[in-house]
C-alpha cells in the first residue's frame, strides 16, 4: 500500500510521526521523513513495526533517556518551567540533552490531550507547485500581521479594535498556523485525507515548552486506526473532543490590553506569549487598548456581549476589576454575567487573578489555561460607601484592605518602577513603625473560630472537588432544555445555575443600618488595628498566599486582622509566613470566614484599597454575592494552597 500523492506532497520535506491514540493522549510510535520525490521512508515506517531504516535506528539509539524525557514531558503537561526543570533534573535528564534532539519526539512519547490545541486533516492544494505547508507559512504571516481573515471563518482570527498595528512582533519562529478555514484548501482535498481510512494524515498543534514559555508547534501524524481506544469515524473530531473535554472550543475573546500595565510591557507580553497560543487554538480575537483609567469599565459597559464569550484582560488586576464593574453597570447585566467569562492574562505587575485561577503568572501558560479551562462561577463582594452607593455600588473580585496593607499598596504608587517589590517594602516599613488604624468592625460570620473555618473549608473544598465547579454543565443543561440550569447531577450547587436579577439584590443595603445578628469585633483589637484584609482569592501577589483558605464559591470571604501592638519579634514570623500562607495559623492573627461586614474608620487620614484601587476613607459595607461571575479556573478550582496540610 503506498501513500496518496497528494498526502505525500503535503508532508514532503517534513518530519512526520506514526502515532496512535491512547486514553491519555497521542502515543508516538515512530518517526519518519519524506524526501522530495520519494515516499519510500513513509512507506517503510508505515508498514513496519520494527522499522530498520538508518534514521530510525539513530533515533532509537537515544531512546533510553528520551523515553524518560517522554514520560516526564507527559507528566508535566501543564506545569510551568520551574516545575519542568525540577522534574527533568529529578529524572537525570538535562535540558542540553533535550535540546540535542532538535525538538524531535522519540517513540513512546505521549502527547497529552491537555497540550493539544488543534487538530486538522492534513491536506494539499491541487497545485503541486505550492504545497500545503508553504500556504500555511503565508497564512501564518497574515495572522501575525493582524489582518482580518474572518470572511469565511470566525476561527483563528484577529482583529485590532483600536491601535490597529497588531504588531505581533516577537513571534520569531513560533508556529501559529491553523489550517482549518483556509480557503486554498478545497473540500475535495480535505475529503481525500479524511476518507483515507488507511492513511489518515493529521496535523496537530500542541503547546510545546520553549525556554520559560510554551509555544504552539505543529506536528504531522500518520495515525494508526487500530488504536488502543475505540475510534469513532472521525479521528480529528475524536482528538479534539478528547483535547477539549467539557471545555468550550474556539472561544470568541475580547482582549483588553492596558498598554501601561506591567511597567509598559503588557502589549508586548500579550503579542509574543499569549496571542500565538490563542490563535493556534482557533480562538477569534478582538483587541482593545485602554486609553485612560476607567476605560475598561466603559468598554465592558457598552460592548456587544453577543460577540464574545470571554473577556481576557492582558493586564494586572486593575482591568478585571474595571471589566466586572462595567458589566455590572449594564442594563442587561443578567445576560452579561451569564454570557461572558472574565479572565486575566498576566501582563501587569499584580497578577493575583491569574496566579489564583490559572495557577501561573506566566502569560503563555495562562493562555493555555484560558483555552483549556473549565468555566466556573466565583463569588464577588459588593462594596458600598456613601459617596458612590446611590449610583452603583462597586464589585470586588479580589480584596478590600484598610490599615497597613492599604497604605503600602496605594501609597507606594510613586515607586511603581520597582514592580511588585514596592508592595513588600511598603508593608515592612509600616509594620515596623507599628502604625495603628483605629476603627469599629461589625461582621456576619460564616465561620468564626479557626476550627470552624477549617470545617467550612474542608466541606466546601470537597464539594467543589466532587462537583467540579463546572459551568459548562449549565450550558449542556440549557441545550437539553433545562432552562434553570439546575442540572441533573449535583443538585443545589450554587454554581450550577444561571444568575438572575435577584442575585444582584443586596441583602444588607447600606441605608438599613447594621443588622442585629452581626457581631462587633472586640474594640480593644480594632482600636489598635494594624492589618484589616478581606479576600476571595488565595494569592494577592505571585508569592503571597494571603488567603490560603479562599475558595471560589463558598459564599464567604476570608477575613484577616492583626493588632498593631503585636511585638515586632512576633510580626516577623507572621510576615515571613506569607509565602506559605502559614501566617493565618499564628495566634496573633484573627482568621475567619464572613459573609458581610461594615468597617467604620475612626481616623481622618488614610484610605481603603479595593482590588488595588484607592477608595475613600468612609464607612465601608461589604457583602458577598454568591457565584455571580463567570471565570476560567484551571481544573475548575483555585490553585491548591495546601491549607489542609499547613
Ligand atoms: N491608558 C491608561 N492611562 C492611565 N491609566 C490607565 C490606562 N489604562 C489603564 N489604566 C489604569 O491602570 C491601573 C493599573 O492597571 P493594571 O492592573 O492593568 O496594571 P498593573 O501593572 O498591574 O498595575 P498595578 O501595579 O497597579 O496593579 C488600572 O487601575 C487602570 O485604571
From TrEMBL:
Keywords: ATP-binding, Kinase, Lipid metabolism, Lipoprotein, Membrane, Nucleotide-binding, Palmitate, Sphingolipid metabolism, Transferase. Residues 248-387 form the DAGKc domain. Residues 127-173, 466-496 are annotated as: Disordered. It is an enzyme of class 2 (transferase). The keyword Thylakoid does not apply. Its EC number is 2.7.1.91. It comes from the Eukaryota. Residues 162-173, 467-478 have a biased composition (Acidic residues). It catalyses: sphinganine + ATP = sphinganine 1-phosphate + ADP + H(+); a sphingoid base + ATP = a sphingoid 1-phosphate + ADP + H(+); (4R)-hydroxysphinganine + ATP = (4R)-hydroxysphinganine 1-phosphate + ADP + H(+). One of its GO terms (molecular function) is sphingosine kinase activity. It is found in: Endomembrane system. Pfam families: DAGK_cat. Residues 147-158 have a biased composition (Polar residues). InterPro entries: ATP-NAD_kinase_N, Diacylglycerol_kinase_cat_dom, Lipid_Phosphate_FormReg, NAD/diacylglycerol_kinase_sf. GO terms for biological process: calcium-mediated signaling; sphingosine biosynthetic process. GO terms for cellular component: cytoplasm; endomembrane system; membrane. SMART domains: DAGKc (SM00046). PANTHER family: ACYLGLYCEROL KINASE, MITOCHONDRIAL (PTHR12358:SF31), SPHINGOSINE KINASE (PTHR12358). This is sphingosine kinase. It comes from Zygotorulaspora mrakii.
Amino acid at each position: 500500500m503506498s501513500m496518496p500523492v497528494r498526502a505525500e506532497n503535503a508532508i514532503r520535506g517534513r518530519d512526520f510521526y506514526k502515532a496512535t491514540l491512547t486514553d491519555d493522549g497521542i502515543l508516538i510510535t515512530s518517526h519518519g521523513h519524506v524526501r522530495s520525490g520519494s515516499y519510500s521512508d513513509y512507506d517503510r515506517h508505515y508498514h513496519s513495526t520494527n522499522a530498520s531504516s538508518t534514521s530510525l535506528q539513530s533515533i532509537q539509539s537515544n531512546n533510553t533517556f528520551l523515553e524518560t524525557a517522554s514520560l516526564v514531558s507527559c507528566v508535566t503537561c501543564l506545569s510551568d518551567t520551574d516545575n519542568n526543570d525540577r522534574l527533568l533534573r529529578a529524572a537525570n535528564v538535562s535540558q542540553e540533552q533535550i535540546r540535542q534532539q532538535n525538538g524531535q519526539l522519540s517513540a513512546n512519547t505521549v502527547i497529552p490531550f491537555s497540550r493539544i490545541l488543534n487538530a486538522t486533516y492534513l491536506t494539499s492544494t491541487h497545485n503541486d507547485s505550492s504545497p500545503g505547508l508553504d500556504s500555511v507559512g503565508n497564512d501564518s504571516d497574515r495572522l501575525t500581521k493582524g489582518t482580518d481573515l474572518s470572511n469565511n471563518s470566525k476561527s483563528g482570527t484577529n482583529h485590532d479594535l483600536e491601535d490597529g498595528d497588531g504588531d505581533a512582533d516577537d513571534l520569531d519562529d513560533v508556529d501559529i498556523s491553523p489550517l482549518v478555514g483556509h480557503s486554498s484548501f478545497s473540500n475535495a482535498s480535505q475529503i481525500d485525507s479524511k476518507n483515507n481510512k488507511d492513511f489518515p494524515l493529521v496535523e496537530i498543534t500542541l503547546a510545546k515548552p520553549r525556554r520559560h514559555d510554551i509555544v504552539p508547534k505543529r506536528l504531522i501524524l500518520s495515525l494508526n486506526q487500530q488504536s488502543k481506544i475505540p475510534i469513532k469515524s472521525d479521528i480529528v473530531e475524536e482528538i479534539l473532543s478528547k483535547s477539549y473535554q467539557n471545555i468550550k472550543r474556539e472561544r470568541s475573546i475580547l482582549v483588553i490590553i492596558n498598554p501601561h500595565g506591567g511597567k509598559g510591557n503588557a502589549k508586548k507580553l500579550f503579542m509574543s506569549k499569549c496571542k500565538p497560543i490563542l490563535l493556534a487554538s482557533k480562538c477569534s480575537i478582538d483587541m482593545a487598548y485602554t486609553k485612560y483609567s476607567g476605560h475598561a469599565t466603559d468598554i465592558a459597559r457598552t460592548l456587544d456581549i453577543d460577540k464574545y464569550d470571554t473577556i481576557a484582560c492582558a493586564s494586572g488586576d486593575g482591568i478585571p476589576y474595571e471589566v466586572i464593574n462595567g458589566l455590572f453597570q449594564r442594563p442587561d447585566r443578567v445576560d452579561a454575567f451569564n454570557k461572558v467569562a472574565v479572565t486575566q492574562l498576566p501582563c501587569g505587575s499584580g497578577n493575583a487573578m491569574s496566579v489564583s485561577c490559572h495557577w501561573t503568572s506566566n502569560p503563555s501558560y495562562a493562555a493555555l489555561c484560558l483555552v483549556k479551562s473549565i468555566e466556573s462561577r466565583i463569588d464577588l463582594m459588593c462594596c458600598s460607601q456613601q459617596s458612590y452607593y446611590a449610583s452603583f455600588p462597586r464589585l470586588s473580585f479580589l480584596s478590600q484592605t484598610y490599615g497597613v496593607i492599604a497604605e503600602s499598596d496605594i501609597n507606594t504608587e510613586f515607586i511603581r518602577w520597582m514592580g511588585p517589590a514596592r508592595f513588600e517594602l511598603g508593608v515592612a516599613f509600616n509594620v515596623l513603625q507599628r502604625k495603628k488604624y483605629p476603627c469599629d468592625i461589625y461582621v456576619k460570620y460564616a465561620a468564626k473560630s479557626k476550627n470552624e473555618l477549617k470545617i467550612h473549608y474542608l466541606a466546601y473544598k470537597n464539594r467543589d472537588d466532587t462537583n467540579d465547579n463546572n459551568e459548562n454543565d449549565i450550558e449542556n443543561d440549557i441545550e437539553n432544555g433545562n432552562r434553570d440550569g439546575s442540572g441533573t447531577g449535583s443538585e443545589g450547587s450554587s454554581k450550577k445555575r444561571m444568575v438572575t436579577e435577584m442575585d444582584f439584590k443586596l441583602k444588607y443595603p447600606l441605608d438599613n443600618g447594621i443588622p442585629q445578628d452581626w457581631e462587633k469585633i472586640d474594640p480593644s483589637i480594632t482600636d489598635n488595628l494594624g492589618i484589616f484584609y478581606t479576600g476571595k482569592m488565595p494569592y494577592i501577589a505571585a508569592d503571597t498566599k494571603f488567603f490560603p483558605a479562599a475558595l471560589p464559591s463558598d459564599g464567604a470571604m476570608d477575613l484577616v486582622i492583626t493588632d498593631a501592638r503585636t511585638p515586632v519579634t512576633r510580626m516577623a514570623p507572621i510576615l515571613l509566613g506569607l509565602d506559605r500562607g502559614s501566617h493565618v495559623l499564628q495566634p496573633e492573627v484573627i482568621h475567619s470566614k464572613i459573609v458581610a461586614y461594615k468597617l467604620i474608620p475612626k481616623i481622618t487620614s488614610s484610605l481603603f484599597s479595593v482590588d488595588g484601587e484607592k477608595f475613600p476613607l468612609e464607612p465601608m459595607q461589604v457583602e458577598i454575592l454568591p457565584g455571580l461571575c463567570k471565570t476560567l479556573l484551571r481544573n475548575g478550582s483555585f490553585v491548591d494552597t495546601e491549607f489542609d496540610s499547613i
